[in-house]
Amino acid sequence: MDIRETIHPEHAKLLDTDGLRAQFHIAGLFTPDAMNMTYTHYDRVIVFGVCPVSGTVEAPNDVSGVTGTEFLLQRREMGLINIGGPGKVSVDGEVYGLGPQEALYIGAGARSIVFSSDDAAHPAKFYGNCAPAHKSYPNKHVTLEEASPVTLGARETNNERTIYRYLHPNVMPTCQLLMGLTKLAPGSNWNTMPAHLHDRRMEVYFYFDMAPEALVFHMMGKPQETRHIVMRNEEAVISPPWSIHSGCGTGNYTFIWAMSGENQVFEDMDMVRPQDLR
């Protein structure tokens, strides 16, 4: 498991491109027949990707050196969205079939989590996040149609988008983990503008559905000290509570967001006017 420490904003603004990427950028999430995990000390979220090809992949439980617990979800909850071909997730023997862009919530206490693909030629790709949890809620499979949608932005400002909230109080209970998927309208390329902060929560962005030559310039940093990280297909970026999180692509893309922290109020945002950015 890759470990990322928290970074003070005064430190972050001194980092060069390589330094910024080393602290916040996550690549190589999908290795065949493996579960790749990154642990960030921002709200102790684990970011992971699983791509089962030739057989099953089981989530590791020998994580006491990182979590200090007997098994991975002893005091944690997990959310994941499948961005690949159809696949299955077995949770303590109960099997959930996940089609493309379908989600699964796994409550605290689950011991055995096993991933598989229906077709090795078109494997599933499970992208997920895992956060500390004080209570166990029921597992739940959520389709795109069952997610809670909200449409924001406008074509005139190049930021028209629909946000599908999967792990959200409107859909189901969780301890603190929020998770969803945002689709940009054709011709829009800003995923969030005006930008905002939510000092009470951290966030992770995962970009996908991008053409091989496409890029997203992910904007981060304090509003008066903005930086950017170049993102490619199926890469993630950690967004600290003190940072804006906005992106602009050279072509169409979709992204998955996940949040963890003090509350679950999606609208709890500290807005930043474009004219105040620097």
End-to-end distance, in Å?
A: 35 Å
Q: How many DSSP H or I helices?
A: 3
| Shape type | globular
Give the CATH H-level superfamily.
Answer: Jelly Rolls
The CATH architecture can be named as Sandwich
- Rg (C-alpha, Å): 18 Å
Total number of distinct structural domains? 1
The CATH class designation is Mainly Beta
* SSE class: mainly beta
Helix-strand sequence = EHHEEEEHEEEEEEEEEEEEEEEEEE
Strand content: 35-45%
For the largest sheet, list the strands in their spatial order. Answer: 1-3-4-11-6-9-12
Low-confidence spans: none
Number of DSSP-assigned strands: 23
Question: Which helices and strands occur, and which strands form pairs?
Answer:
Layout: E1 2-4, H1 9-12, H2 17-24, E2 25-26, E3 35-40, E4 45-50, E5 57-58, H3 64-67, E6 76-82, E7 87-91, E8 94-98, E9 103-106, E10 113-117, E11 126-132, E12 140-142, E13 148-152, E14 161-167, E15 178-184, E16 196-197, E17 201-208, E18 216-222, E19 225-231, E20 235-239, E21 246-249, E22 254-261, E23 270-271
Parallel strand pairs: 1-3
Antiparallel strand pairs: 2-20, 3-4, 4-11, 5-10, 6-9, 6-11, 7-8, 7-10, 9-12, 13-14, 14-15, 15-22, 16-23, 17-20, 17-22, 18-19, 18-21
Q: Can you characterise this structure?
A:
- The chain has 278 residues and is mostly beta strands.
- It has one domain: Jelly Rolls, CATH 2.60.120.10.
- The protein is 6% helix and 42% strand.
- It has helices at residues 9-12, 17-24, 64-67, and strands spanning 2-4, 25-26, 35-40, 45-50, 57-58, 76-82, 87-91, 94-98, 103-106, 113-117, 126-132, 140-142, 148-152, 161-167, 178-184, 196-197, 201-208, 216-222, 225-231, 235-239, 246-249, 254-261, 270-271.
- The protein has a seven-stranded mixed beta sheet, with no helix packed on it. It has a seven-stranded antiparallel beta sheet with strand order 2-20-17-22-15-14-13. A four-stranded antiparallel beta sheet has the order 5-10-7-8, with no helix packed on it.
- A hairpin with an 8-residue loop joins strand 13 (148-152) and strand 14 (161-167).
- It is globular.
- InterPro entries: KduI, KduI/IolB_isomerase, KduI_N, RmlC-like_jellyroll, RmlC_Cupin_sf.
